[in-house]
């Protein structure tokens, strides 16, 4: 039950910038939805409203059957992976991955099991004692994914997670994130400005322009505007 629904959602930033206009979107449980469009079209704002990092100006957001407009980020059953990974520099990989669970008072042995399992899935078991500065870009990206996985959220939100990687690694991580989606069997909402990335990863593509959704379709049914 992790359907995500936006109904008539608007976001108006101070200074009267309408970043998202009348957004209507239904994301089914277990879908891999990609929000795509040029820089500034409102993708990130949409994702951040789903995460609760940005207040909704008007309209309604549901996750499952629950109205989420006023629910704190930590109570939304989501996890978000950021472009800059947002790892804590003073903590080891293990501590970075464990932190969200520790905050939630999960018992230590349970945390340990989850961290090691996620590290195994992501092939970073050998890095658990390192600090982020001693990792490559690709490894940091895996740790950021690991930190999300251990929480076992119903919905994964990803904001341009591959844009800081070189081209070769980006292609490799695309495949890995698609595999991860199949393995975790949960809802992914993924933001990118990269058309190819969108088309190869998404089961459903949402094309945005100037704060408005232009198309919602399966990748093979998306048409290009002239
Ligand atoms: P995208 O993710 O597609 O690049 P954003 O959602 O980041 O687009 O931005 C959409 C629009 O909202 C842009 O015009 C941007 O300048 C504006 N915007 C984003 N964040 C803020 C903010 N905190 N204050 C004012 N305007 C913002
Ligand atoms: P959650 O986002 O579910 O609270 P996190 O482990 O991601 O769990 O974050 C824990 C706390 O640390 C939150 O209050 C969050 O706002 C804050 N936080 C997240 N990323 C950073 C960061 N890079 N630097 C400092 N604080 C952060």
UniProtKB/TrEMBL annotation:
<dbReference type="GO" id="GO:0140359">
    <property type="term" value="F:ABC-type transporter activity"/>
</dbReference>
<keyword id="KW-0067">ATP-binding</keyword>
<dbReference type="GO" id="GO:0055052">
    <property type="term" value="C:ATP-binding cassette (ABC) transporter complex, substrate-binding subunit-containing"/>
</dbReference>
<keyword id="KW-0813">Transport</keyword>
<dbReference type="GO" id="GO:0008643">
    <property type="term" value="P:carbohydrate transport"/>
</dbReference>
<dbReference type="GO" id="GO:0016887">
    <property type="term" value="F:ATP hydrolysis activity"/>
</dbReference>
<feature type="domain" description="ABC transporter">
    <location>
        <begin position="4"/>
        <end position="226"/>
    </location>
</feature>
<dbReference type="GO" id="GO:0005524">
    <property type="term" value="F:ATP binding"/>
</dbReference>
<keyword id="KW-0547">Nucleotide-binding</keyword>
<protein>
    <submittedName>
        <fullName>Multiple sugar ABC transporter, ATP-binding protein</fullName>
    </submittedName>
</protein>
